[in-house]
Amino acid sequence: MQQFRRLTPLALALGLMLGSPTLLAAEAVEVPAVEAVNGKAPLPLEELRTFAEVMDRIKAAYVEPVDDKTLLENAIKGMLGNLDPHSAYLEPEAFAELQESTSGEFGGLGIEVGTEDGFIKVVSPIDDTPASKAGIQPGDLIVKIDGQPTKGLSLMEAVDKMRGKAGSKINLTLVREGGKPFDVELTRAVIKVKSVRSQLLEDGYGLIRISQFQVNTGEEVGKALAKLRKDNGKKLRGLVLDLRNNPGGVLQAAVEVADHFLKKGLIVYTEGRIANSELRFNADPADASEGVPLVVLINGGSASASEIVAGALQDHKRGVLMGTDSFGKGSVQTVLPLNNDRALKLTTALYFTPNGRSIQAQGIVPDIEVARAKLTREDGGELIKEADLAGHLGNGNGGADKPSGSKQQQAPRPQDDDYQLSQALNLLKGLNVTRGE
Protein backbone atom coordinates (compact mmCIF):
# COMPACT_ATOMS: atom_id res chain seq x y z
CA MET A 1 0.00 0.00 0.00
CA GLN A 2 1.52 3.25 -1.07
CA GLN A 3 0.89 6.45 0.81
CA PHE A 4 2.22 9.99 0.64
CA ARG A 5 2.49 11.60 4.04
CA ARG A 6 4.92 13.52 6.08
CA LEU A 7 4.41 12.63 9.73
CA THR A 8 4.55 9.68 12.06
CA PRO A 9 1.23 7.83 12.21
CA LEU A 10 1.01 8.60 15.90
CA ALA A 11 -0.15 12.03 14.85
CA LEU A 12 -3.37 10.36 13.75
CA ALA A 13 -4.99 11.31 17.02
CA LEU A 14 -4.50 14.94 15.99
CA GLY A 15 -6.32 14.51 12.73
CA LEU A 16 -4.28 12.87 9.99
CA MET A 17 -5.46 10.93 6.98
CA LEU A 18 -3.27 8.11 5.70
CA GLY A 19 -4.47 5.85 2.92
CA SER A 20 -7.59 3.73 2.74
CA PRO A 21 -8.96 0.74 4.65
CA THR A 22 -8.85 -1.41 1.52
CA LEU A 23 -5.23 -0.57 0.94
CA LEU A 24 -4.34 -1.08 4.57
CA ALA A 25 -5.83 -4.55 4.44
CA ALA A 26 -3.35 -5.53 1.73
CA GLU A 27 -0.75 -8.18 2.38
CA ALA A 28 2.67 -7.17 3.57
CA VAL A 29 5.08 -6.11 0.84
CA GLU A 30 7.81 -8.64 0.20
CA VAL A 31 11.19 -7.12 1.00
CA PRO A 32 14.38 -8.66 -0.46
CA ALA A 33 16.70 -10.43 1.98
CA VAL A 34 19.58 -8.35 3.26
CA GLU A 35 22.25 -10.49 1.63
CA ALA A 36 20.53 -10.21 -1.74
CA VAL A 37 20.68 -6.44 -1.52
CA ASN A 38 24.20 -5.73 -0.36
CA GLY A 39 26.04 -9.04 -0.62
CA LYS A 40 26.95 -9.04 3.08
CA ALA A 41 26.22 -11.61 5.75
CA PRO A 42 22.53 -11.44 6.80
CA LEU A 43 23.37 -10.97 10.50
CA PRO A 44 26.23 -8.77 11.81
CA LEU A 45 27.26 -11.05 14.67
CA GLU A 46 29.60 -8.63 16.43
CA GLU A 47 26.92 -5.90 16.59
CA LEU A 48 24.37 -8.45 17.79
CA ARG A 49 26.70 -9.49 20.59
CA THR A 50 27.05 -5.83 21.56
CA PHE A 51 23.27 -5.44 21.47
CA ALA A 52 22.81 -8.48 23.72
CA GLU A 53 25.46 -7.21 26.11
CA VAL A 54 23.87 -3.74 26.34
CA MET A 55 20.46 -5.27 26.94
CA ASP A 56 21.92 -7.52 29.66
CA ARG A 57 23.67 -4.58 31.37
CA ILE A 58 20.48 -2.50 31.35
CA LYS A 59 18.47 -5.33 32.89
CA ALA A 60 21.11 -5.87 35.57
CA ALA A 61 22.09 -2.29 36.46
CA TYR A 62 19.28 0.11 35.56
CA VAL A 63 17.80 1.86 38.58
CA GLU A 64 14.41 0.21 38.02
CA PRO A 65 13.55 -3.23 36.64
CA VAL A 66 12.90 -3.29 32.88
CA ASP A 67 11.38 -6.31 31.15
CA ASP A 68 12.63 -7.80 27.89
CA LYS A 69 9.48 -6.84 25.95
CA THR A 70 9.89 -3.14 26.76
CA LEU A 71 13.57 -3.13 25.86
CA LEU A 72 13.02 -4.92 22.56
CA GLU A 73 10.11 -2.69 21.51
CA ASN A 74 12.16 0.40 22.37
CA ALA A 75 15.00 -0.98 20.27
CA ILE A 76 12.64 -1.43 17.32
CA LYS A 77 11.32 2.12 17.73
CA GLY A 78 14.89 3.37 17.79
CA MET A 79 15.70 1.53 14.55
CA LEU A 80 12.75 3.14 12.77
CA GLY A 81 13.03 6.54 14.42
CA ASN A 82 16.61 7.05 13.27
CA LEU A 83 15.93 6.29 9.60
CA ASP A 84 13.87 9.37 8.67
CA PRO A 85 11.01 11.43 10.18
CA HIS A 86 8.31 9.41 8.41
CA SER A 87 9.23 5.81 9.22
CA ALA A 88 7.73 4.41 12.42
CA TYR A 89 6.85 1.27 14.36
CA LEU A 90 3.08 1.04 14.86
CA GLU A 91 1.88 -0.65 17.99
CA PRO A 92 -1.66 -2.14 17.92
CA GLU A 93 -3.44 1.05 19.00
CA ALA A 94 -1.63 3.26 16.49
CA PHE A 95 -2.11 0.70 13.70
CA ALA A 96 -5.84 0.48 14.44
CA GLU A 97 -6.10 4.28 14.40
CA LEU A 98 -4.30 4.36 11.08
CA GLN A 99 -6.82 1.95 9.59
CA GLU A 100 -9.79 3.90 10.95
CA SER A 101 -8.53 7.37 10.02
CA THR A 102 -9.09 7.10 6.28
CA SER A 103 -12.89 7.30 6.55
CA GLY A 104 -12.65 11.04 7.18
CA GLU A 105 -13.96 10.83 10.76
CA PHE A 106 -11.68 10.58 13.79
CA GLY A 107 -10.99 12.19 17.13
CA GLY A 108 -8.48 14.90 17.94
CA LEU A 109 -7.57 18.54 17.38
CA GLY A 110 -7.45 18.58 13.58
CA ILE A 111 -3.79 19.49 13.40
CA GLU A 112 -0.79 17.94 11.68
CA VAL A 113 2.54 18.32 13.43
CA GLY A 114 6.21 17.61 12.82
CA THR A 115 9.48 18.40 14.56
CA GLU A 116 12.00 21.18 13.97
CA ASP A 117 15.13 21.87 16.03
CA GLY A 118 13.72 19.88 18.94
CA PHE A 119 10.38 21.72 18.93
CA ILE A 120 6.96 20.53 17.84
CA LYS A 121 5.95 22.46 14.72
CA VAL A 122 2.51 22.84 13.17
CA VAL A 123 2.58 21.67 9.58
CA SER A 124 -1.06 22.32 8.82
CA PRO A 125 -4.41 22.74 10.57
CA ILE A 126 -7.32 20.92 8.95
CA ASP A 127 -10.35 22.89 7.79
CA ASP A 128 -13.30 23.24 10.20
CA THR A 129 -11.57 21.61 13.17
CA PRO A 130 -10.74 22.94 16.65
CA ALA A 131 -7.23 23.84 15.47
CA SER A 132 -8.31 25.86 12.43
CA LYS A 133 -11.15 27.57 14.32
CA ALA A 134 -8.69 28.61 17.03
CA GLY A 135 -6.53 30.34 14.41
CA ILE A 136 -3.55 27.98 14.60
CA GLN A 137 -1.36 28.47 11.52
CA PRO A 138 1.29 26.47 9.62
CA GLY A 139 4.72 27.17 11.07
CA ASP A 140 3.52 27.81 14.63
CA LEU A 141 5.79 26.22 17.23
CA ILE A 142 4.09 24.39 20.10
CA VAL A 143 6.41 25.22 23.00
CA LYS A 144 4.16 23.98 25.83
CA ILE A 145 1.31 21.49 26.21
CA ASP A 146 -0.83 22.16 29.27
CA GLY A 147 2.05 24.17 30.72
CA GLN A 148 4.67 21.48 30.17
CA PRO A 149 7.59 22.40 27.82
CA THR A 150 7.83 20.39 24.60
CA LYS A 151 11.54 21.05 24.03
CA GLY A 152 13.25 17.68 23.72
CA LEU A 153 10.04 15.67 23.47
CA SER A 154 9.83 13.17 20.66
CA LEU A 155 6.95 13.55 18.23
CA MET A 156 5.45 10.38 19.72
CA GLU A 157 5.55 11.81 23.25
CA ALA A 158 4.07 15.15 22.16
CA VAL A 159 1.26 13.46 20.27
CA ASP A 160 0.48 11.26 23.27
CA LYS A 161 0.13 14.39 25.42
CA MET A 162 -2.21 16.00 22.91
CA ARG A 163 -4.44 12.96 22.65
CA GLY A 164 -7.59 12.79 24.72
CA LYS A 165 -11.31 12.19 24.75
CA ALA A 166 -13.62 14.34 22.65
CA GLY A 167 -14.91 17.20 24.79
CA SER A 168 -11.80 17.44 26.96
CA LYS A 169 -9.81 20.68 26.93
CA ILE A 170 -6.14 21.26 26.22
CA ASN A 171 -3.98 24.38 26.42
CA LEU A 172 -1.23 24.91 23.84
CA THR A 173 1.43 27.61 24.15
CA LEU A 174 2.49 28.74 20.70
CA VAL A 175 5.21 30.92 19.20
CA ARG A 176 4.51 32.47 15.81
CA GLU A 177 7.26 33.83 13.56
CA GLY A 178 9.65 34.47 16.43
CA GLY A 179 7.12 36.52 18.42
CA LYS A 180 6.08 36.23 22.04
CA PRO A 181 4.48 33.02 23.31
CA PHE A 182 0.69 33.00 23.55
CA ASP A 183 -1.82 30.45 24.82
CA VAL A 184 -4.65 28.81 22.91
CA GLU A 185 -7.26 26.66 24.61
CA LEU A 186 -8.86 23.99 22.46
CA THR A 187 -11.56 21.43 23.03
CA ARG A 188 -10.85 18.04 21.54
CA ALA A 189 -13.54 16.86 19.15
CA VAL A 190 -14.53 14.10 16.78
CA ILE A 191 -13.10 15.38 13.51
CA LYS A 192 -15.32 14.95 10.46
CA VAL A 193 -13.35 16.05 7.45
CA LYS A 194 -15.11 16.99 4.22
CA SER A 195 -12.24 16.83 1.77
CA VAL A 196 -13.82 18.80 -1.12
CA ARG A 197 -15.81 22.03 -1.14
CA SER A 198 -16.84 24.07 -4.15
CA GLN A 199 -18.70 27.28 -4.99
CA LEU A 200 -19.00 29.98 -7.60
CA LEU A 201 -16.94 33.04 -6.71
CA GLU A 202 -18.54 35.14 -9.44
CA ASP A 203 -20.46 34.48 -12.62
CA GLY A 204 -18.26 32.12 -14.64
CA TYR A 205 -15.55 31.63 -12.02
CA GLY A 206 -15.46 28.70 -9.64
CA LEU A 207 -13.48 27.54 -6.61
CA ILE A 208 -12.67 23.98 -5.58
CA ARG A 209 -11.03 23.62 -2.17
CA ILE A 210 -9.40 20.29 -1.23
CA SER A 211 -8.47 20.07 2.45
CA GLN A 212 -7.11 16.49 2.36
CA PHE A 213 -6.80 13.62 -0.10
CA GLN A 214 -9.13 10.88 1.09
CA VAL A 215 -10.20 7.72 -0.70
CA ASN A 216 -13.17 9.39 -2.44
CA THR A 217 -11.58 12.79 -3.12
CA GLY A 218 -11.09 12.15 -6.84
CA GLU A 219 -14.75 11.24 -7.27
CA GLU A 220 -15.83 14.26 -5.21
CA VAL A 221 -13.78 16.65 -7.37
CA GLY A 222 -15.47 15.22 -10.46
CA LYS A 223 -18.88 15.89 -8.90
CA ALA A 224 -17.79 19.39 -7.86
CA LEU A 225 -16.77 20.24 -11.43
CA ALA A 226 -20.14 19.04 -12.73
CA LYS A 227 -22.03 21.03 -10.08
CA LEU A 228 -20.11 24.22 -10.83
CA ARG A 229 -20.97 23.89 -14.53
CA LYS A 230 -24.62 23.32 -13.66
CA ASP A 231 -24.77 26.24 -11.22
CA ASN A 232 -23.09 28.51 -13.77
CA GLY A 233 -25.47 27.45 -16.52
CA LYS A 234 -22.66 27.16 -19.03
CA LYS A 235 -18.96 26.31 -19.30
CA LEU A 236 -16.82 28.00 -16.67
CA ARG A 237 -14.49 30.83 -17.67
CA GLY A 238 -11.99 30.06 -14.92
CA LEU A 239 -11.36 27.87 -11.88
CA VAL A 240 -9.26 28.18 -8.72
CA LEU A 241 -8.01 24.90 -7.24
CA ASP A 242 -7.10 25.63 -3.62
CA LEU A 243 -4.52 23.22 -2.14
CA ARG A 244 -3.26 25.51 0.61
CA ASN A 245 -2.72 23.85 4.00
CA ASN A 246 -3.51 20.47 2.46
CA PRO A 247 -1.18 17.99 4.18
CA GLY A 248 -1.66 15.18 1.67
CA GLY A 249 -3.29 11.77 1.90
CA VAL A 250 -4.00 8.91 -0.47
CA LEU A 251 -1.82 8.61 -3.58
CA GLN A 252 -4.60 7.28 -5.81
CA ALA A 253 -6.80 10.25 -4.92
CA ALA A 254 -4.06 12.69 -5.94
CA VAL A 255 -3.67 10.89 -9.26
CA GLU A 256 -7.44 10.99 -9.88
CA VAL A 257 -7.63 14.71 -9.10
CA ALA A 258 -4.76 15.56 -11.45
CA ASP A 259 -6.35 13.34 -14.12
CA HIS A 260 -9.52 15.46 -14.04
CA PHE A 261 -7.48 18.32 -15.51
CA LEU A 262 -5.17 16.42 -17.89
CA LYS A 263 -5.86 14.61 -21.18
CA LYS A 264 -2.59 12.75 -21.58
CA GLY A 265 0.89 12.22 -20.22
CA LEU A 266 2.56 11.14 -17.02
CA ILE A 267 1.12 12.35 -13.69
CA VAL A 268 3.68 10.99 -11.22
CA TYR A 269 6.16 8.13 -10.86
CA THR A 270 7.98 6.59 -7.93
CA GLU A 271 11.36 4.94 -7.56
CA GLY A 272 12.52 2.63 -4.77
CA ARG A 273 14.36 -0.61 -4.01
CA ILE A 274 11.45 -3.05 -3.79
CA ALA A 275 9.34 -4.11 -6.76
CA ASN A 276 6.11 -2.64 -5.40
CA SER A 277 7.69 0.81 -5.14
CA GLU A 278 8.18 1.24 -8.91
CA LEU A 279 4.94 2.89 -10.01
CA ARG A 280 3.89 5.08 -12.93
CA PHE A 281 0.53 6.83 -13.32
CA ASN A 282 -0.70 8.31 -16.61
CA ALA A 283 -3.68 10.50 -17.46
CA ASP A 284 -6.58 9.18 -19.50
CA PRO A 285 -8.03 11.17 -22.44
CA ALA A 286 -11.15 12.34 -20.61
CA ASP A 287 -11.04 15.93 -19.30
CA ALA A 288 -13.70 16.59 -16.68
CA SER A 289 -12.57 20.22 -16.40
CA GLU A 290 -13.20 20.91 -20.13
CA GLY A 291 -9.89 22.74 -20.38
CA VAL A 292 -11.07 25.60 -18.16
CA PRO A 293 -8.33 28.19 -17.34
CA LEU A 294 -6.87 27.12 -14.00
CA VAL A 295 -5.01 28.73 -11.10
CA VAL A 296 -3.68 26.43 -8.36
CA LEU A 297 -3.05 27.92 -4.91
CA ILE A 298 -0.29 26.38 -2.74
CA ASN A 299 1.64 27.38 0.38
CA GLY A 300 4.00 25.95 2.99
CA GLY A 301 1.21 23.76 4.35
CA SER A 302 0.72 22.04 0.97
CA ALA A 303 2.51 18.72 1.15
CA SER A 304 2.88 15.26 -0.31
CA ALA A 305 -0.23 14.43 -2.39
CA SER A 306 -0.90 18.16 -2.81
CA GLU A 307 2.56 18.54 -4.29
CA ILE A 308 1.93 15.64 -6.67
CA VAL A 309 -1.12 17.41 -8.11
CA ALA A 310 0.56 20.83 -8.21
CA GLY A 311 3.74 19.43 -9.76
CA ALA A 312 1.88 17.50 -12.47
CA LEU A 313 -0.27 20.48 -13.46
CA GLN A 314 2.78 22.76 -13.48
CA ASP A 315 4.91 20.40 -15.58
CA HIS A 316 2.11 19.99 -18.12
CA LYS A 317 1.54 23.78 -18.11
CA ARG A 318 -2.12 23.06 -17.42
CA GLY A 319 -2.51 25.83 -14.86
CA VAL A 320 -0.71 28.70 -13.18
CA LEU A 321 0.62 27.95 -9.68
CA MET A 322 0.26 30.86 -7.28
CA GLY A 323 1.13 31.35 -3.61
CA THR A 324 4.31 30.39 -1.76
CA ASP A 325 6.71 27.41 -1.81
CA SER A 326 5.17 24.10 -0.76
CA PHE A 327 6.37 21.89 2.11
CA GLY A 328 8.71 19.57 0.21
CA LYS A 329 7.69 16.06 1.27
CA GLY A 330 8.58 13.83 -1.67
CA SER A 331 8.84 10.37 -0.14
CA VAL A 332 6.49 7.39 -0.18
CA GLN A 333 5.57 5.37 2.90
CA THR A 334 4.43 1.75 2.75
CA VAL A 335 2.56 0.13 5.63
CA LEU A 336 3.94 -3.37 6.26
CA PRO A 337 1.63 -5.34 8.60
CA LEU A 338 3.35 -7.64 11.09
CA ASN A 339 1.93 -10.83 12.57
CA ASN A 340 1.12 -9.43 16.04
CA ASP A 341 -1.36 -6.66 15.24
CA ARG A 342 1.56 -4.31 14.72
CA ALA A 343 2.99 -2.77 11.56
CA LEU A 344 5.88 -0.82 10.14
CA LYS A 345 5.37 2.44 8.28
CA LEU A 346 8.50 2.50 6.18
CA THR A 347 9.78 4.98 3.62
CA THR A 348 10.20 2.83 0.51
CA ALA A 349 10.40 5.25 -2.43
CA LEU A 350 10.68 8.81 -3.69
CA TYR A 351 8.15 10.29 -6.08
CA PHE A 352 8.91 12.47 -9.10
CA THR A 353 6.89 14.92 -11.17
CA PRO A 354 6.37 14.22 -14.90
CA ASN A 355 9.52 16.20 -15.76
CA GLY A 356 11.59 14.13 -13.31
CA ARG A 357 11.70 16.65 -10.47
CA SER A 358 12.10 15.35 -6.95
CA ILE A 359 10.21 17.53 -4.50
CA GLN A 360 11.95 16.09 -1.46
CA ALA A 361 13.22 18.86 0.88
CA GLN A 362 12.73 21.46 -1.87
CA GLY A 363 9.03 21.68 -2.55
CA ILE A 364 7.13 23.17 -5.47
CA VAL A 365 7.94 26.77 -6.38
CA PRO A 366 4.85 28.66 -7.62
CA ASP A 367 4.88 30.37 -11.01
CA ILE A 368 3.69 33.58 -9.36
CA GLU A 369 4.65 34.21 -5.76
CA VAL A 370 1.89 35.81 -3.71
CA ALA A 371 2.34 35.90 0.05
CA ARG A 372 -0.55 35.87 2.45
CA ALA A 373 -1.73 39.39 3.31
CA LYS A 374 -4.52 41.03 5.24
CA LEU A 375 -7.08 42.88 3.13
CA THR A 376 -8.38 46.22 4.35
CA ARG A 377 -10.94 48.27 2.47
CA GLU A 378 -11.48 51.99 2.60
CA ASP A 379 -14.93 53.15 3.60
CA GLY A 380 -14.91 56.83 2.86
CA GLY A 381 -18.24 57.04 1.11
CA GLU A 382 -18.86 57.18 -2.64
CA LEU A 383 -18.00 60.41 -4.49
CA ILE A 384 -20.57 62.37 -6.46
CA LYS A 385 -20.89 61.31 -10.09
CA GLU A 386 -22.13 63.05 -13.22
CA ALA A 387 -25.44 61.24 -12.92
CA ASP A 388 -26.00 62.94 -9.52
CA LEU A 389 -25.91 66.46 -11.00
CA ALA A 390 -29.21 68.22 -11.66
CA GLY A 391 -29.97 68.58 -15.37
CA HIS A 392 -27.26 66.15 -16.49
CA LEU A 393 -27.44 64.78 -19.99
CA GLY A 394 -28.61 61.23 -20.51
CA ASN A 395 -26.51 58.59 -22.20
CA GLY A 396 -26.96 58.87 -25.96
CA ASN A 397 -26.62 55.16 -26.45
CA GLY A 398 -29.45 54.41 -24.07
CA GLY A 399 -29.42 52.64 -20.74
CA ALA A 400 -30.18 53.78 -17.21
CA ASP A 401 -28.12 56.39 -15.36
CA LYS A 402 -25.72 55.19 -12.68
CA PRO A 403 -25.66 57.71 -9.85
CA SER A 404 -23.62 57.16 -6.69
CA GLY A 405 -25.19 54.62 -4.39
CA SER A 406 -26.82 52.73 -7.26
CA LYS A 407 -24.46 49.80 -6.95
CA GLN A 408 -26.08 46.93 -5.07
CA GLN A 409 -24.43 45.76 -1.87
CA GLN A 410 -22.89 42.33 -2.44
CA ALA A 411 -23.07 39.47 0.02
CA PRO A 412 -19.69 38.55 1.56
CA ARG A 413 -17.55 36.42 -0.75
CA PRO A 414 -14.48 34.27 0.04
CA GLN A 415 -12.22 36.45 -2.11
CA ASP A 416 -13.15 39.59 -0.16
CA ASP A 417 -10.99 38.55 2.82
CA ASP A 418 -8.48 36.26 1.12
CA TYR A 419 -5.74 38.15 -0.72
CA GLN A 420 -4.24 35.10 -2.45
CA LEU A 421 -7.66 33.95 -3.64
CA SER A 422 -8.56 37.43 -4.89
CA GLN A 423 -5.29 37.58 -6.84
CA ALA A 424 -6.00 34.16 -8.37
CA LEU A 425 -9.43 35.36 -9.47
CA ASN A 426 -7.98 38.56 -10.92
CA LEU A 427 -5.44 36.53 -12.90
CA LEU A 428 -8.20 34.38 -14.39
CA LYS A 429 -10.15 37.47 -15.37
CA GLY A 430 -7.06 38.99 -16.94
CA LEU A 431 -6.42 35.83 -18.97
CA ASN A 432 -9.95 36.00 -20.34
CA VAL A 433 -9.62 39.71 -21.18
CA THR A 434 -6.45 39.13 -23.21
CA ARG A 435 -8.10 36.21 -25.00
CA GLY A 436 -11.06 38.37 -25.90
CA GLU A 437 -13.51 36.16 -24.02
From TrEMBL:
Domain of life: Bacteria
Gene3D superfamilies in alphabetical order: 2-enoyl-CoA Hydratase, Chain A, domain 1, 2.30.42.10, 3.30.750.44
SUPFAM superfamilies to which the protein is assigned, alphabetical: ClpP/crotonase, PDZ domain-like
Family of the protein in this entry: Belongs to the peptidase S41A family.
GO cellular component, one term: outer membrane-bounded periplasmic space
GO molecular function, one term: serine-type peptidase activity
Disordered: region residues: 390-418
The protein's name: Carboxyl-terminal protease
Pfam families xref list: CtpB_N-like (PF22694), PDZ_6 (PF17820), Peptidase_S41 (PF03572)
Taxonomic lineage of the native organism: Bacteria, Pseudomonadati, Pseudomonadota, Gammaproteobacteria, Pseudomonadales
GO-annotated biological processes: proteolysis; signal transduction
Domain PDZ positions: 95-163
Alphabetized UniProt keyword annotations: Hydrolase, Protease, Serine protease, Signal
Leader sequence segment: 1-25
